[in-house]
TrEMBL record:
<dbReference type="InterPro" id="IPR055170">
    <property type="entry name" value="GFO_IDH_MocA-like_dom"/>
</dbReference>
<feature type="domain" description="GFO/IDH/MocA-like oxidoreductase">
    <location>
        <begin position="156"/>
        <end position="216"/>
    </location>
</feature>
<dbReference type="GO" id="GO:0000166">
    <property type="term" value="F:nucleotide binding"/>
</dbReference>
<dbReference type="InterPro" id="IPR000683">
    <property type="entry name" value="Gfo/Idh/MocA-like_OxRdtase_N"/>
</dbReference>
<dbReference type="InterPro" id="IPR036291">
    <property type="entry name" value="NAD(P)-bd_dom_sf"/>
</dbReference>
<protein>
    <submittedName>
        <fullName>Oxidoreductase, Gfo/Idh/MocA family protein</fullName>
    </submittedName>
</protein>
<dbReference type="Pfam" id="PF22725">
    <property type="entry name" value="GFO_IDH_MocA_C3"/>
</dbReference>
<feature type="domain" description="Gfo/Idh/MocA-like oxidoreductase N-terminal">
    <location>
        <begin position="3"/>
        <end position="118"/>
    </location>
</feature>
<dbReference type="InterPro" id="IPR051450">
    <property type="entry name" value="Gfo/Idh/MocA_Oxidoreductases"/>
</dbReference>
<dbReference type="Pfam" id="PF01408">
    <property type="entry name" value="GFO_IDH_MocA"/>
</dbReference>
Length: 322
């Protein structure tokens, strides 16, 4: 078992603490949080060991789970990597792209593993269809959330949209060509609603919308590709797969047949992929343990986390150019 320590005992940090304690892959050593009052409260309530010094915790573990505010991600990861510890870092990976690039260099130099917490990659609905998403040419995403003061210190792009940015980059095998975006601040100092259009070199276009002042929650993505339409509901953990194939010469009475202007006939049919329920956060943490134990590449690498951050920052920069 890998000895694990958590940095940050806020809302998400407490979830990570509980899951690491339950996991058969890890031995939870304890946690550190600079807020001593909150830290002692968490320690008293749940029985986790509280370290009053970050370096003491890092020294005592094999893997450091960084669940602190984004501004401190780099400093925490730097301390851990310099001591030869593997690091799991919540999204976004760092506050700036320069920081992410420094961590990539350090990770390679010290020979440690690093994974970024883009949890939607482990959503069971996405896992069920990911391999079926093949060269999509148009993607549309909507990630809407009811207002929550937590997280409004950063633009909605880094708070919500970055989930969809990472998922899109994981299935589109092409470089970004152009980004156009707009953002509106309604209740926060930073944009609460954003829309971005990402054009890729291979012709694929992704249209992303995010809002954190919606009246209802929604997390849906739609992928359009040759002869297929794939819809993923990340919130309800449901998928819809509609495909087309050449129509049979003698279609049945209930077969759905389409004919284009050239006279080609296609049959529409539906697939129902097997969605296997899981705890996405637990799965991402345990796949990281497997990468460490087997010396393999993590599912969400530091490089991929940096790429998602790069696109997110380009979107934010594009706000000022509209």
């Amino acid at each position: 078992m890998l000895k694990a320590g958590v940095l940050g005992a806020g809302h998400l940090g407490k979830i990570h603490l509980r899951l690491l304690q339950e996991s058969a892959y890890y031995d939870l050593v304890g946690f550190y949080d600079p807020d001593e009052i909150n830290a002692k409260k968490v320690a008293d309530e749940f029985g986790y060991r509280y370290f009053d010094n970050i370096n003491k915790l890092i020294d005592a573990v094999d893997m450091v789970d960084i669940v602190t505010p984004t501004l401190s991600h780099y400093d925490c990861a730097e301390k851990a990597i310099e001591k030869g510890k593997h690091v799991f870092i919540e999204k976004p990976v760092t506050n700036t792209l320069e920081e992410a690039e420094k961590l990539i260099e350090m990770k390679d130099r010290y020979g440690v593993k690093a994974q970024v917490g883009h949890v939607e990659r482990f959503n069971p609905a996405f896992l069920a269809v990911k391999d079926a998403i093949d060269n999509p040419m148009f993607i549309e995403t909507h990630r809407l959330a009811e207002f929550n003061p937590r997280g409004t210190d950063v633009p909605v792009v880094l708070d919500l949209m970055i989930h969809d940015i990472d998922a899109i980059l994981s299935v589109v095998n092409s470089e970004v060509k152009q980004i156009n975006a707009s953002g509106v601040s309604v209740i926060s100092d930073s944009p609460d609603i954003a829309n971005a259009r990402i054009a890729f070199e291979n012709g694929c276009v992704a249209n992303l919308t995010s809002s954190r002042i919606s009246l209802k929650n929604m997390r849906k993505s739609r992928f359009f590709q040759r002869d297929a339409y794939i819809s993923v509901d990340f919130l309800e953990k449901k998928v819809e797969v509609v495909k087309m194939k050449d129509a049979p010469e003698n279609p049945g009475d209930f077969d759905m047949i389409l004919q284009n202007a050239e006279g080609e006939k296609k049959q529409i049919y539906f697939e129902n992929p097997d969605i296997r329920p899981n705890n996405a956060i637990l799965q991402e943490l345990e796949t990281f343990a497997e990468a460490i134990n087997n010396d393999t590449e993590p599912v969400v690498t530091l490089e991929q986390g940096a790429n998602a951050l790069k696109v997110a920052l380009q979107i934010i920069k594009s706000f000022n150019q509209v």
